[in-house]
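Input C-alpha cells:
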C-alpha cells in the first residue's frame, strides 16, 4: 500500500487502458444490436476514461522526472511514451469535452466521428501499453530502485 501511495501511476493507468477498448466494444455492440443502452455505456466509459487521464498524466510525469539515469534506448522509449501519452490525453480530453457538450445519443450524425475517435484512442492506448511494458520489462525503468 505504501508503494501505491508513492507511485500510483502503474495502478491508475489501467483505467484508460481498459475503459477505452471497453467503450469501443460497447460501441460495436450498439452498431450490431441498435440498442441505445450500449451507446450510453460506451459514452460513459469513454468520459470516465478521459477524466482519468488527468491523474494518469500527472503521475506519469512525476514518475518520469524521478527516474535515475538510464540507457539511450530507454530514453527513446520514454520520449515515445510521453509523446503518445500527450496525444492520447489531448484527443481524449478535447473529444470528451466536445461529445459531452454534443452528445452522440442526441445527435446520431455524430456517431461516425465518435466511432472513429473510439477506434483511434483504443489503438493509441494499446500502443501506449506496449511501450510501457517494454520500458518496465525490457529496459527496467522504474524497477529495482530506478527512481529517486
Amino acid at each position: 500500500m505504501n508503494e501505491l501511495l508513492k507511485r500510483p501511476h502503474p495502478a491508475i493507468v489501467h483505467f484508460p487502458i481498459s475503459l477505452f477498448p471497453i467503450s469501443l466494444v460497447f460501441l460495436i455492440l450498439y452498431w450490431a444490436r441498435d440498442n441505445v443502452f450500449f451507446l450510453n455505456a460506451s459514452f460513459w466509459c469513454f468520459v470516465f476514461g478521459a477524466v482519468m487521464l488527468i491523474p494518469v498524466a500527472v503521475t506519469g510525469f512525476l514518475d518520469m522526472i524521478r527516474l535515475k539515469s538510464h540507457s539511450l534506448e530507454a530514453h527513446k522509449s520514454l520520449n515515445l511514451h510521453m509523446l503518445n501519452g500527450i496525444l492520447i490525453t489531448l484527443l481524449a480530453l478535447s473529444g470528451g469535452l466536445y461529445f459531452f457538450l454534443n452528445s452522440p445519443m442526441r445527435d446520431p450524425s455524430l456517431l461516425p466521428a465518435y466511432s472513429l475517435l473510439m477506434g483511434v484512442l483504443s489503438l493509441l492506448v494499446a500502443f501506449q501499453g506496449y511501450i510501457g511494458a517494454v520500458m518496465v520489462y525490457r529496459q527496467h525503468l522504474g524497477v529495482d530502485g530506478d527512481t529517486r
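The first helix runs from residue 2 to 6. The two ends are 18 Å apart (CA to CA).
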